[in-house]
Design brief:
mainly alpha, 3 helices
């Protein structure tokens, strides 16, 4: 779970999910995802997209099953995102 870089307090899973703007629920300061956190998020998203397309190609799912799988994977990604989020006080460059 992420820690606020200003006050040092740990966010709960629910606070992280609710805080889409990354405002610390304890001290109210703006926090930014760290560069490493964004890279992890990008890599995991790309891997899951490749797996979805590969599974669809191998098993020839119907459009209904493909939609269900994409919704399930999206919900899974949203639920595990707080576990890998790291915060920074300033916005770091993407590269």
């Amino acid at each position: 779970m992420p820690n606020c870089q200003t006050c040092g307090r740990k966010w709960t899973w629910m606070q992280t999910v609710k805080s889409l703007r990354n405002i610390c629920p304890h001290c109210g300061t703006k926090q930014y995802p760290s560069q490493a956190s964004r890279k992890k998020n990008l890599i995991s998203t790309l891997i899951l997209l490749i797996l979805i397309f590969a599974a669809n190609g191998l098993f020839d799912f119907s459009i209904g099953w493909s939609t269900v799988i994409v919704i399930f994977v999206t919900l899974a990604m949203i639920s595990i995102h707080p576990l890998f989020l790291e915060l920074s006080n300033k916005e770091e460059p993407y590269i």
